[in-house]
Write a structure and sequence with these properties.
The structure holds two protein chains of two kinds. By secondary structure, chain A is mainly alpha-helical. Chain A has 14 helices and no strands. In chain A, helix 1 packs across helix 4, helix 1 runs antiparallel to helix 14 and helix 13 runs antiparallel to helix 14. The longest helix of chain B has 38 residues. The chains are: A mainly alpha, B mainly alpha.
């Protein structure tokens, strides 16, 4: 296990190097000279030259690349161009609000998704199964924007069940007052694709030999589904949820924007709007690193719950 | 086709598809949208969507003009003459010269209402759909062409070529796609239909790449490829004249999956203001306007854009599912 972990960690090095190169290529080469962006429209050559020296973009490309790698390794990205706040503190302070929404959302989504998928496995092929699947397809076709706009307008603005938007300082208040509506919308949006996926995992298991054996020895259908199938279908489900966590951090950006939640996703949108390159660069690199790490953890978890899987 | 020839993959798939009623209905809806798009593109339909045909926020005809709105307009009509108006003489002169054209009569209601400027929502939705669908199709086509080309090269040649493309693949898949799209949007700094197509196409090739590469690895050792090699076909010819027709169904299914995803992505990008430029209408920019209108109680633009998009995407998704089943020989 340790050897596997170390080897996979070693294999990440070229991918991580590639991510760094890609981000560097995008921002330092395709993006053009950031000094013009920063200096604004009314600037003279001396100011531009000054900013270029400050940013280090007057150096040759290899030196710029070295500076970039050093920034990543030391977690020191300097300050945001827009607000002057250190990038490291932006990332750490925005992580909490994001997780306050995402952790309950992931737990609820996975729990409800598994329960519904197993319930559908009971009645697979029936009209209930088929109509739920069609409902999922229709539900997935409505833009997430429409869900957010309609729910925010209906439940918060018109009915007043939830605050329209806002965020406080205490975790308790955030969790009980501000997070429930974003979580509800997140569930409404993500349950349909999750259910489709989990159902396919469950149905893969339902046609296995051990299910026939269990049925042959007289187990009830409920016991087969809720005990035998669940334990086996849990393997792809857990790894799927695990591997998708880092992407979720960004994926909730629309919820965070509409509800004024100061999370990572909203920070990305703000940074794109303000051309705040240091913030986007840092978030891209660290989210990519987190994605690779969580994929590795998912693989290791896979082996832990399924002893048949041999890690090569 | 003679009787001795057995039907090919596409013939069989079409036969299977034709028996599937849901698939045929979806195909009809998708074709109707495409026809509308073609007509709008040629300027035959909705070309004059920017004409202000109705009053501001004219409600849909099936509701009828609301009494409150009519009252507001009545009070707005004539202003009492102002003796201190410094421009009064100028305006009178202009009026006499005939320079002031009286505005065309505006209708109080429209079939599905009007937006802030009095544009007909039905025409606007058609025009917006044109932008969104063109972006979705164009970007998906670019992504599938790139994915197929890279996948063919990686799968066919193997070795170092394969390693290089897999390296690219691992880089692009380790950055979540929405973050990748936003990052590229931040860097490019310019708006436009071509830019979104480029952003989505250049970031979306990984899915088709993985599947096409696997198909090429499977096919390159088959007898028909060896036979082509024996008669001296070039590698390029083997890849695209011999193997590609046998794996093109994978590319087609990927194409339709990506179209759905990219239409949704374009709507989000345009909504955030990173998509189509100001002055171009798309379903995303309509939702952006609709968000503020909803608070005023003007729900029709939201309803029109949302339901047009939901209808197309539902039909496209159902068609994709049916297409995948029809093209998968294992299922029969």
């Amino acid at each position: 296990m340790t050897a596997f972990f170390l080897r996979r960690l070693w294999q990440m090095v070229p991918t991580m190097a590639g991510v760094l190169l890609l981000v560097f290529f995008l921002f330092n080469w395709v993006g053009g000279d950031p000094a013009y962006l920063l200096a604004g429209k009314m600037s003279d050559a001396a100011q531009i030259a000054n900013i270029r020296t400050q940013l280090g973009v007057d150096q040759p490309y290899p030196v710029q690349l070295w500076l970039f790698v050093k920034q990543i390794a030391t977690f020191d990205f300097g300050n945001s161009w827009a607000t002057g706040e250190p990038v490291a503190s932006i990332i750490t302070s925005r992580l909490g609000p994001s997780l306050t929404v995402l952790i309950p959302l992931t737990i609820l989504e996975t729990g409800i998704g598994i329960a519904l998928a197993l319930a559908l496995a009971f009645v697979r092929g029936s009209w209930i199964d088929r109509s739920v699947m069609v409902a999922c397809t229709v539900g997935m076709s409505v833009s997430i924007l429409v869900y957010i706009i309609a729910f925010q307008y209906g439940l918060a603005y018109k009915l007043g069940w939830f605050p329209v938007q806002g965020w406080g300082d205490s975790l308790r208040q955030n969790l009980l007052q501000y997070a429930p509506l974003p979580i509800l919308i997140g569930l409404a949006v993500s349950l349909a694709p999750t259910l489709r996926l989990f159902r396919s995992f469950v149905l893969d298991e339902a046609s296995q030999d051990y299910v026939r054996t269990a049925r042959a020895k007289g187990l009830s259908e409920a016991r087969i589904v809720w005990v035998h199938v669940l334990r086996n279908a849990a393997i792809p489900i857990i790894t799927h949820v695990m591997a998708n966590l880092p992407a979720l951090l960004i994926g909730a950006f629309l919820l965070e924007r509409f509800f004024g939640i100061p999370g990572i996703g909203r920070e990305v949108i703000l940074a794109v709007e303000r051309s705040d390159f240091p913030v986007i660069k840092a978030i891209t690199v660290y989210v990519a690193a987190a994605t690779m790490l969580f994929n590795l953890l998912a693989d290791m978890l896979y082996q832990a719950v399924d002893p048949r899987v041999q890690l090569a | 086709m003679t009787d001795t020839l057995s039907p090919g993959l596409w013939t069989l798939a079409w036969r299977r598809l034709r028996t599937d009623r849901v698939a045929m209905a979806s195909l009809g809806v998708v074709l109707a949208f495409l026809a509308l798009l073609a007509l709008a593109g040629m300027g035959l339909v909705a070309a004059d969507w920017e004409r202000e045909v109705g009053v501001n926020y004219a409600p849909p005809s099936f509701i009828g003009a609301a009494g409150a709105d009519a009252a507001v307009q009545a009070t707005q009509a004539p202003l009492p003459p102002n003796p201190f108006d410094p421009l009064a003489a100028d305006i009178a002169a202009l009026g006499q010269a005939g320079a002031v054209v009286p505005p065309a009569a505006k209708r109080a209601t429209l079939p599905f209402g009007a937006d802030k400027w009095g544009h007909d929502i039905v025409r606007k939705t058609i025009k917006g759909g044109q932008t969104s669908i063109v972006v979705g199709l164009g970007a998906a086509l670019l992504a599938v062409v790139l994915g197929t080309l890279f996948g063919a090269l990686a799968g066919f040649y193997g070795g170092v070529v394969d390693d290089v493309f897999n390296w690219f693949y691992s880089i692009f898949t380790s950055i979540p796609s929405i973050l990748m799209i936003l990052t590229v949007a931040a860097v490019l700094q310019q708006k436009g239909v071509a830019t979104i197509v480029l952003i989505l196409g250049l970031t979306g090739w990984t899915g088709p790449f993985r599947l096409i590469r696997a198909e090429y690895i499977k096919h390159k050792g088959r007898e028909y490829v060896l036979a082509a090699h024996a008669i001296g076909a070039s590698n390029w010819r083997k890849m695209f004249a011999h193997i590609f027709p046998n794996v093109s169904h994978v590319a087609l299914v990927q194409l339709s999956i990506l179209v759905v995803g990219f239409i949704k992505a374009e709507v989000i990008l345009s909504f955030l203001g990173f998509g189509v430029p100001v002055g171009t209408v798309s379903w995303g920019s309509m939702l952006n306007e609709a968000q503020n209108e909803l608070i005023l109680g003007k729900w029709w633009q939201l309803a029109a854009a949302a339901s047009a998009m939901a209808l197309l995407v539902t039909a496209f998704s159902l068609l994709t599912d049916a297409l995948r089943d029809a093209l998968d020989p294992k299922l029969t």
